[in-house]
Write the structure tokens for this entry.
Amino acid sequence: MTRDDAIARLKSAAPFDVLVIGGGIAGAGVALEAARAGARTALVEARDFASGTSSRSSKLVHGGLRYLAQGKFGLTRESVRERTALLRAAPGLVSRLDFLVPVRTGGRNGKLKLAAALAVYDIFAGARSRRWRDAAELSAEIPELAREKLQGGWSYLDAQTDDARLVLRVLQEARAHGALVVNYVAADDVLRQEGGVAGARLRDAVTGATFDIAACLVVNVAGAWSDRLRGKVGAAPKLRPLRGSHLMIAAERFPLQQAVGFYAEDGRPVFVLPWEGAVLIGTTDIDHRDDLDIEPRISRGEVDYLLQATRREFPALDLTESDIVSTWAGVRPVVASGADVDPSKEARDHLVVTEEGLLTVTGGKLTTFRATAVAALRTAVARIPALGRVGAEARIFAAPNLETGKALEELPDAVARRLIGRYGDFAPAVHAAARAGDMQTIGATPTTWAELRWAFRAENVVHLDDALLRRTRLGLLLRDGGAEFLPRIGEIARQELGWDDARWRAEEERYRALIAQSYSLPARP
Ligand SMILES: Cc1cc2nc3c(=O)[nH]c(=O)nc-3n(C[C@H](O)[C@H](O)[C@H](O)COP(=O)(O)OP(=O)(O)OC[C@H]3O[C@@H](n4cnc5c(N)ncnc54)[C@H](O)[C@@H]3O)c2cc1C
């Protein structure tokens, strides 16, 4: 359905049972679970789907080993359970990731302490994945790893995903259950009746037109921006925005086959991990004091911090700033404890609160989106009885149609798995849309030109950055946001969206400015 059609339907099909405000992973999860339970559901996203924090994470689907150290057994158990469910539901989108934690004499990770934590992790997962490896084995496998005081290390299994594509896949599933889902439509205010919030005033961010939509339940899943809507019902702010930033390095400069976790000089955990043909370094955890309307970006101090920590752990690589392909930063919607604590010590639990009838859900993790959505919607069963069925379905995504696999038989296994994982039963259509040369990959990424063509054709792309930063991740994976490929990308955009030269020039200019401002190295003072 085109975006214009979706907006027309939004107006004609109102009132809804559930109106979801925010199209990140939390909103997508709420929309899916509400629609699957049979509630008439709509979701609006002020900018692009996943353009908030949900495209800026470390891409891990993980139990969170460090939460165990904080004694958060419940959070870890839930995360491990959801990791298992996601691995099962979306192979090709969520995949296993080998993790290694080196142990050094006098270091923060004692061999036995880590063994105990990993044993709990294994118990929650119902399978043993931890394995001790001695220093000689590690040095042979990762010759670039610092050998100083190296005793060995623990290997274990976790998982990773493409965060923005995960959001899109959840939204696709929500649509399949009847949810109406629209990007570039913002909720500017809530509508009130005697019983409390009963809808929202929406604004089409493309045309500027405003309209009201009534709903029995309004769910505020606006992430780091949630306090704004809460403010409309007089609620006091609860969030402490914390920024986390990353660096991307080309795999040819960092030939890494597994994730490695270690500590920066200040004792904070840092990790490097292979992702989509490149290597990601993350992350920081600092108070974000910038205006939330400005796209977050990495600071000079964060670049130095991440680079120094990685250089210390992998001295032989001699990484420098010139090896950085891209950077990105996201803002964690963390619920403030109110205490004057270090950012890393703030809990990562989710918050579910109803104020004047407005249900706010925030602060969870990408990994636990389903559990968070189920817990939140169950609080509203008295208002919408259909929500009593929420959580009854064990599978996160319906199993792909048998025809889907058959239609992709001629493709290499990895490509077919990737397409099915990302597009579900639309995978054959993505393949069928490919023109000559479109099944080739772009640069050193695993992304095919067909995926990009499909994004322009069928995935509600409004701006070029929607296609290059979220439908595909080329803007993160390629130097200068993939500038060298822009002429061919422009051709596809013209073919699929009918953009004329003036529109393409405007989109290209907007995209280049965004890459320079928020996805590149900050200028030296
Ligand atoms: C650096 C970093 C690394 C992380 N790494 C991981 C990880 O590896 N694994 C993991 O499980 N979790 C991770 N997380 C946590 C995870 O990314 C977030 O918890 C999650 O993405 C939050 O999703 P959300 O939907 O609540 O927020 P968002 O993704 O920010 O979505 C909120 C959306 O609401 C929209 N919105 C705001 N106001 C309005 C309005 N008025 N009307 C309509 N729409 C509106 C915004 O545009 C935005 O798209 C990480 C977080 C950060 C910052």
In short: Residues 501-518 form the longest helix (18 residues). The chain is about 35% helix and 25% strand. The mean pLDDT is 94.
